[in-house]
Amino acid sequence: MSSAGAAASPALAAELERLERALHRPQVRADHERLAALLDEDFREIGSSGQCYGREVALQEIPLERAQGLIESDQYAVWMLAEGFAQVRYRSRSHVDGQPRRWVLRSSLWRLHSTGWRMVFHQGTPEAR
Questions:
Q1: Cβ distance 29 to 94 under 8 Å?
Q2: Which residues of 114-125 are buried (b: 16+ CB within 10 A; e: fewer)?
Q3: CB 42 within 8 A of CB 53
Q4: For 20-74, how does the pLDDT look when each residue is reduced to its tens digit (9 = 90+)?
Q5: pTM for the structure as a whole
Q6: Among 92, 88, 74, which Cα is nearest to 121's?
Q7: Per-residue three-class SS string for 37-94
Q8: 2 falls in which pLDDT band (50, 70, 90)?
Q9: Number of other residues whose CB lies within 10 A of the CB of residue 35
Q10: Residues 6+ apart with CB under 8 A from 127
Q11: What does the alpha-carbon distance between residue 26 and residue 49 come to, in Å, rounded to a whole number?
């Protein structure tokens, strides 16, 4: 595995991008068990609204957001912060009624468990215009 502060291997970067993108899909967002498997027990989020959430609120609220429709994302970068601990950075925007919203810069922290990678923290900050 890569050393701390280094770019993740291409295989790991692809795996963590795949997991992030899974969280954008309506069928995953609507499935409590799949969400619970991806969100660490210690999960916390600072949303683009500035609101802070814990895991239980996220598990209740994310399925309600699936009506937003398409979530577009790009510019993924994955960094190893420590052994078994990675940061994923990218930007995304949702589309409502076919209209794209503002881009949001995203940062997620992922922790490796015996069962696989789980998101422990997520933050969204609206991109400067």
A1: no
A2: eeebbbbbbbbe
A3: no
A4: 999 999 889 889 999 999 999 999 999 888 899 999 999 998 888 755 678 999 9
A5: 0.90
A6: 88
A7: HHEEEEEEEECCCCCEEEHHHHHHHHHHHHHHCCEEEEEEEEEEEECCEEEEEEEEEE
A8: very low
A9: 21
A10: 91, 102, 103, 104, 105
A11: 21
- Domains, the chain: 6-126 (3.10.450.50)
Residue for token digits 């400067």?
A: 128
The Cα–Cα gap between 66 and 72 comes to 13
- Cβ atoms within 10 Å, residue 95: 13
Cβ–Cβ < 8 Å for 104, 127: yes
CA atoms within 13 A on the CB side of 9: 8
Residue 73 contacts residue 92 (beta carbons within 8 Å): yes
Best CA proximity match to 123, nearest among 48, 59, 21, 67: 48
Cα-Cα-Cα-Cα torsion 111, 80, 10, 113, nearest 10 degrees, comes to -20
Q: Is the CB of residue 15 less than 8 Å from the CB of residue 76? A: no
